[in-house]
Amino acid sequence: MAAPEDEQDDKPWRRLYHAQEVEEEEAAARAAALAAARAEAARGGGWAPAGAAEQQQQPGGAAAEAAGAGGAEGEQEEELGELQAQLLLWYRKTCLAAGVGMGGACWHWYARGRRAAADVFLPPRAAALPPAVIEAWRRKAQMREGMRTVGRHTLFVTGVAALYFGVELGAGLARGAVGDWPNTAAAGAVAGGFLGARAPSSMRGRTLAMGTLAGGLLGALSGWSQQRLAELAAENEAGYAQQQQQRDGKPDS
To answer: Residues 6 or more apart from 210 whose CB is under 8 A from it?
Structure first.
């Protein structure tokens, strides 16, 4: 008996969003049909419908196909999980740089006397106001200017950090080697070039070249140092584990 039209129309969508459930239902239907064919063959004296052997082998093939699909999905999920981990690391580094930039901007504004040196515009009619009102106006204007300055510096540091760590991540994914010093060298060159391009137009070419070169050198040095420290830590950990195995395997005297 043919399936209802609504069920036939809904089947492709169920296969798309519920592929595993559809495969289980189809496997159960094939198993039920095979069992019914075997029972009818037993009642009819050994007669079996055409294609029963193929139906008997079909669940095994379906299982192999399901296993292959599961392996492919597992590889895709593993790659997606690695990409998500790298993006999360980029986000954390950028947020850390933003916090450091905000702390430095606040320290420069409040501790270095920038707040006291800030000029506050007072209208001409302010001379007729009481000194307490003028002082409150001045403090409010200084606070507003401080918030604007700290926010502008923090946003600038966050943008440069996001650019640096983003180029580092992109270079690592493109090269297939995340955590190598060439990635940090490329990121430093791009970030240094961006900072050099902010100079006035008369000096932009020179500062762009100097910023790219200096940023690349600093980025390469930073990445090489981190990579070397990681290798030394891994070697020390391996040596400690080997010593621990030798100590455990040594017989007691």
So the answer is: 196
- Percentages helix, strand, coil for the chain, rounded to the nearest 5? 85, 0, 15
Give the integer Cα–Cα distance in Å for 10 and 75: 29
Do the beta carbons of residue 52 and residue 70 sit within 8 Å? Answer: no
Tokens 């409150």, residue?
136
* Whole-prediction pTM: 0.60
SS3 state of residue 253: coil
CB 130 within 8 A of CB 55: no
pLDDT digits (tens, 9 = 90+) for 198-238: 888 778 888 899 999 999 999 999 889 988 898 888 888 88
Q: What is the pLDDT of residues 13-35, one digit of tens each?
A: 555 556 667 778 888 888 888 88
CA–CA distance, 40 with 60 (Å, rounded to integer): 23
In this structure, what token pair is assigned to residue 185? 């060298």
Number of other residues whose CB lies within 10 A of the CB of residue 188 = 26
Residue 37's pLDDT is 82
- ∠ Cα 35 37 39 (to 5°): 70
Q: Report which DSSP code applies to 1.
A: -
Which among 85, 91, 82 has a CA at the least distance from the CA of 166? 91
